[in-house]
Automatic annotation (TrEMBL):
Name of this protein: Transmembrane protein
Biased composition range(s): Polar residues: 373-388
Region entry Disordered, spans: 373-411, 450-472
Source domain of life: Eukaryota
Keyword Coiled coil part of the UniProt annotation: yes
Protein keywords: Coiled coil, Membrane, Transmembrane, Transmembrane helix
């Protein structure tokens, strides 16, 4: 018996030394892990800063592109203005050509009208000459008739030299005295001839007067037409002068616009040269930025490879730590402890099976009693929010504690409990609906906050805090964190804090909590005496995790 105690003492001392050594190695590994994590955080911070710088560079590039687009817009506006000026110039040229064409057409019309007026004037002059010629002919005829009359009068005079009147008087006297018939006939013929001469003379005078009247009227019409034609010619000369003045003004404006167009073309060439220089500089800068971005991507790839290598090393160290902890617990356990542990594990498995069976029966009864729409609504709700996780933990603890007792109750109590649970589930479904709405609003607000850099920094800080909070947890809590949604990580952190406060192990070896050997390891001595309390706490923890899985 003494040798066995000495052997056990030696074994325990060896185990204590190994435990101390393993703890020291675990501390070193944790320090290395913390250093690696700090290095990774530094690398991630640098990468974030580099990405921020790249985004700022991209923003600057976009601003430059916007400025270039504004300049291009101004250039296009200037080009459009130049095109408008060119169009106006062309329009003025067309108007000038039309004016010149109209001026030439009017000059042609004026020449034609002038020619027609000249022809009309020549015709009037010809008519006047003809009238004057007719007047001359009539005057000659009149003179000839006068000569013939004088000759006839001379022939009709008697030898004594009396005039025709004296002859007529004498004839009258002779008639009175009873002259002969021959003399009377001669006297009558002379009188008839005299009357004929007087009538011819009167006719010639009337024709001369009418000819003079027609000639005067033709002269008046000619003078009036000549005056009107001179007035029209003067007016057309005035219009021609005005057209010449307008043509000179248009030519002056055309020369000014041509000067402006040449000046605008010179400015456009200068702007094109400046823009070409700017484009070449920007293209060179863009090539440099692209090269820098490629270098940054290569550095990022190297950092990601280093990060993956570090993560693999951390995972390897965690596996080694877990294996050493399991080896330590296996060394600390004796044969009796192992047997008790196996019994407890079998009991725990039976309790799990019973809990699963009770859960399946419960949910079968709930789904059978609820309508399909309510069941779908109850199953489609998300997990509770982090703010109400403590209340949910308390409710699931009470549910897990009362589950074994409810399994052995009467059917009436079972139905009453199911009705109460259904009402509670309806209330929880309404609460979950409200929480889902609040969660959706919070997620929308979070997405809106993530659009700015400050919210990105805060989210990175929160991620670092959450990673830091769950980095050193036990394998059980880590597994639960990987299986449960992020909204339940607060409850897992509380459980991890409680485990650390009670110095509970992080593995499934629950007997280490109850049957730890040395005084320096395991839970406090005040908790080692009550193994049943520890088992109940473990069962409650398992039921809580199962409830969380069901709610999720």
């Amino acid at each position: 018996m003494g040798k066995w105690k000495e052997a056990v003492t030696t074994q325990l001392n060896d185990a204590a030394r190994k435990n101390k050594k393993l703890r020291e190695e675990l501390r070193l590994l944790r320090e290395e892990k913390a250093n690696a994590l700090s290095g990774l955080r530094v690398q991630l911070t640098e990468e974030f800063q580099e990405r921020t710088a790249m985004q700022r560079d991209e923003l600057e590039a976009l601003k430059k592109q916007a400025a270039a687009l504004r300049e291009e817009k101004k250039t296009m506006a200037a080009t459009h203005e130049a095109e408008l000026q060119a169009a106006r110039t062309k329009l003025r040229e067309v108007i000038q050509l039309e004016l010149e064409t109209e001026y030439k057409r009017r000059e042609g019309d004026w020449e034609k009208e002038k020619t027609q007026l000249q022809m009309l004037t020549a015709a009037k002059e010809t008519e006047r000459a003809q009238a004057e010629h007719e007047c001359g002919v009539l005057q000659l005829r009149l003179n000839r008739l006068g000569t013939q009359y004088d000759e006839l009068a001379t022939l009709l005079q008697p030898e004594c030299g009396f005039t025709a009147e004296t002859c007529v008087l004498e004839a009258g006297d002779h008639a009175a005295d009873g002259t002969s018939n021959a003399e009377r006939q001669k006297t009558a013929m002379a009188a008839a001839h005299a009357r004929q001469m007087e009538s011819i003379k009167a006719d010639l005078q009337s024709k001369e007067q009418r000819t003079q009247f027609l000639l005067g009227r033709a002269k008046q019409e000619h003078e009036a037409e000549k005056t009107q034609l001179l007035r029209e010619l003067h007016l057309r000369e005035e219009e021609l002068k005005v057209a010449h003045t307008l043509l000179k003004q248009v030519q002056v404006e055309n020369s000014r616009y041509m000067e402006r167009v040449s000046h605008a073309q010179t400015e456009r060439q200068a702007l094109e040269q400046r823009y070409a220089a700017k484009v070449s500089a920007l293209s060179q800068e863009l090539a440099e930025r692209i090269q820098a971005a490629d270098e940054v991507q290569l550095a990022n790839k190297r950092l990601q490879e280093q990060l993956r290598t570090s993560q693999q090393q951390v995972a390897t160290l965690e596996e080694e730590s877990t294996m050493r902890e399991e080896a330590f617990h296996s060394l600390m356990f004796s044969e009796d402890s192992k047997r008790i542990t196996m019994d407890l594990q079998r009991a725990l498995q039976a309790a799990r099976d019973e809990a699963e069976e009770w859960k399946m029966q419960y949910y079968a009864s709930v789904t059978a009693s609820q309508p399909p729409s309510a069941a779908v609504a109850a199953t489609s709700q998300g997990g509770p929010s982090p703010q109400k996780s403590a209340e949910a933990d308390g409710e699931h603890e009470s549910a897990a504690a009362t589950a074994p007792a409810a399994a052995v109750r009467t059917p009436e109590a079972w139905h009453d409990q199911l009705a109460a649970r259904e009402a509670n589930l309806d209330l929880q479904a309404a609460q979950l609906a409200r929480k889902a709405a609040l969660l959706a609003a919070a997620e929308a607000k979070l997405n809106k906050m993530r659009s700015s850099m400050a919210s990105g920094d805060r989210s990175n800080a929160e991620d670092d805090d959450s990673d830091r909070g769950l980095a050193d947890t036990s394998p059980l809590i880590s597994t639960a964190a990987s299986l449960l949604p992020s909204s339940l990580h607060g409850s897992l952190r509380l459980l991890e804090a409680q485990r650390r406060r009670l110095h509970l192990p992080g593995t499934c070896g629950l007997c280490a909590c109850c049957f730890s050997g040395g005084g320096t390891t395991g839970v406090p001595r005040r908790l080692r005496r009550n193994a049943f309390l520890t088992i109940v706490a473990a069962l409650m923890l398992l039921f809580m995790l199962a409830s969380f899985r069901v709610v999720a």
